[in-house]
Design a protein that fits this description.
Layout (H helix, E strand, L loop, with lengths): L1 E8 L3 H8 L2 H7 L3 E8 L2 E10 L2 E15 L3 E9 L5 E14 L2 E13 L7 H29 L33 H9 L23 H13 L3 E6 L2 E6 L10 H16 L5 E6 L13 H4 L3 H20 L4 E5 L2 E3 L1 H7 L3 E5 L3 E3 L11 H11 L1 H10 L3 E2 H7 L4 E3 L2 H5 L5 H6 L10 H13 L3 H15 L7 H12 L2 H11 L10
Parallel strand pairs: 9-10, 10-11, 11-13, 12-14, 13-16
Antiparallel strand pairs: 1-7, 2-3, 3-4, 4-5, 5-6, 6-7, 8-9, 14-15
Helix pairs in contact: 2-3, 4-8, 5-6, 6-8, 8-9, 9-10, 10-11, 16-17
The chain binds coenzyme A.
């Protein structure tokens, strides 16, 4: 008998891992467990009373933990004899993904065998009993974890993000967000022409806002720092994946001017950080981002000069996302509108929740969507759909976004949205628990982790070529492309890739 499942737990991965290794938690979670005592580092003896159909028996046996990769995964093997009732053995593979600092996705796969009288009950009855046991186990385990999380110290799960690092002096040519001269659309267009992604190992942009809207350099520096210090944009790094979260949930994560200015520095710092192999961009709470902060327009986008400068800052921000050499994934829940759509389109991939809503309502505000945002839209959805989106200013749902190519993947199904169908979890376990599938963050993290093992120079080079080609003529620098290809060919990682192939093992890439 084999089965698999998952549960979303509201606790840090470290806490869940400790709970999975704590005999008292395990005893309280295993249905019918009368005793569970540690006999060696990874071994326990256990007594469990279990009822399968008409057969009720007390099983005495042992529990062994193996294949341990703390704090991510292990195999729990339980085997016991129930005397005349027969014997049972289960191998349970458990893995933990840290979705957020205090949200952990637990996945498990069970292979179970029974013998003796139990085996005569027939597979249907055995399967039903095993599924019920698993359901009960995770319900009890979740309760235990909830109790532990309520009393635990705040989670320090993953690496802290060093805000000071953003202030590092820039030794090479900086990416400065300069305002074009007032009322000079040609200058704005020229500033927007350089879309080409940076080579792997990008450099930090200065924290310099457009002069035209800058009350004073120091004044805006302070506002940008405030974005970081007050965590209007949060960064969390775990398992080589950085999660950048727009964090103004009460305003549906609308981007303030200071946030547009701060994000490039964050992306550049993540590009420099060798511990980061992929970046996820998302929003706190229910939404990704409802675009630019509209009330603030009175102050920072009040006239033509400010509007022009503002758009340059938006484009510079989105370019900073598009330019980093590492793979980027936007995780989209709730509203993804206007400038929020531009942020999402600047990522390499877009994973949406089934209830996400998209739109570019520029025509409702008499704004022309910027050159680069329009180009990205065109390259994703094609001319007729781009026109529909921009002229119509209508919102569209995730299913439509997937159909037209605006997003790459939608988690969950439309049927789940209106509650008319049961999920796999509900079918297997009797509708007791909401499944973790349907969570675009879980899917994005799994995808990011799979990319994290690949050669950074190779992915960075492919990104440079593809983005440059997609953005049209004049953007791709062929000499630079050839230089990137040559650098990858001379890299340690290239040697490592060949050696790993020859030795039939997984490569370990360093990004150089
Ligand atoms: N800028 C600033 N605040 C915003 C915002 C934005 N772009 N979008 C939403 N908010 C704020 C709302 O003002 C509201 O704040 P309040 O509670 O202090 O009044 C809060 O977020 C919740 O939004 P609300 O409008 O009450 O929710 P809703 O469900 O009725 O509508 C939207 C949600 C996203 C459809 C609607 O807020 C909207 O159309 N926002 C503007 C989207 C847009 O045009 N973006 C492009 C900008 S270029």
């Amino acid at each position: 008998m084999e089965m698999a499942g998952e549960a979303r737990l509201q606790a840090s991965r470290e806490l869940v891992w400790d709970a999975l290794n704590d005999p008292s938690v395990l005893q309280a979670s295993i249905p019918g467990c009368e005793s569970l005592e540690r006999t060696a580092d990874n071994e326990f003896t256990a007594t469990v009373v279990s009822k399968v159909g008409p057969i009720k028996a007390r099983f005495a046996g042992k529990v062994t933990l193996s294949n341990i990769t703390a704090p991510k995964s292990y195999t729990l093997t339980g085997e016991g004899s129930g005397g005349a009732a027969g014997f049972a053995r289960a191998d349970i593979e458990v893995s933990l993904d840290a979705l957020e600092p205090t949200v952990t996705l637990l996945r498990y796969g069970v292979k179970a065998n029974v013998g003796g009288k139990l085996a005569q009950l027939g597979s249907r009855m055995i399967d039903a009993a095993a599924r019920k046991s698993a359901d009960d186990f995770f319900a009890l385990f979740e309760k235990q974890v909830d109790g532990l999380a309520a009393t635990a110290a705040p989670a320090v799960n993953g690496a802290a993000f060093d805000v000071e690092a953003l202030m590092m002096p820039v030794t090479e040519e900086p990416v400065v967000v300069n305002a074009p001269a007032v009322a000079m659309p040609a200058a704005a267009l020229a500033a927007q022409a350089d879309f080409a992604p940076s080579a792997p190992a990008a450099h930090a942009p200065h924290l310099v806002p457009p002069a035209a809207v800058q009350p004073s350099a120091a004044g805006y520096q302070a506002e940008v720092m405030d974005v970081l210090m007050s965590e209007k944009i949060k960064v969390w790094i775990s398992d080589q994946v950085a999660v950048v979260t727009l964090n103004r949930p009460n305003s549906r994560n609308a981007m303030t001017y200071a946030m547009w200015l701060a994000l490039p520095s964050i992306m550049a710092a993540l590009d420099r950080n060798p511990d980061v192999r992929a970046v996820i961009l998302t929003g706190a709470g229910k939404d990704f981002c409802a675009g630019a902060d509209i009330p603030e327009f009175e102050k920072v986008r009040a006239d033509v000069a400010q509007a022009t400068a503002y758009e340059v800052a938006v484009d510079a921000c989105c370019d900073a996302i598009a330019k980093i050499s590492k793979p980027t994934i936007a995780v989209l829940r709730g509203y993804c509108l206007g400038g929020g759509a531009h942020l999402a389109m600047s990522c390499d991939f877009r994973f949406a929740a089934y209830d996400a809503m998209f739109g570019i309502p520029a025509a409702r505000l008499s704004i022309i969507y910027g050159v680069k945002g329009t180009r990205k839209l065109l390259s994703l959805v094609g001319l007729p759909q781009a026109k529909r989106i921009l002229y119509g200013a209508q919102r569209f749902d995730a299913a439509h976004a997937l159909r037209i190519g605006f997003v790459d993947q939608v988690a969950g199904s439309a049927a789940e949205k209106d509650g008319t169908s049961t999920s796999i979890w509900e079918r297997i376990f009797g509708a007791k628990r909401r499944p973790a599938d349907g969570d675009p963050m879980a899917e994005a993290r799994a995808f990011a982790t799979s990319l994290a093992g690949n050669a950074p120079l190779s992915m960075g080079g492919a990104k440079y070529l593809l983005n440059g080609m997609a953005m049209g003529t004049g953007v791709l620098d062929l000499a630079r492309s050839e230089a990137l290809i040559a650098a990858a060919a001379g890299s340690d990682d290239y040697r490592e890739g060949r050696a790993a192939f020859a030795e039939k093992r997984e490569p370990k890439f360093q990004g150089r």
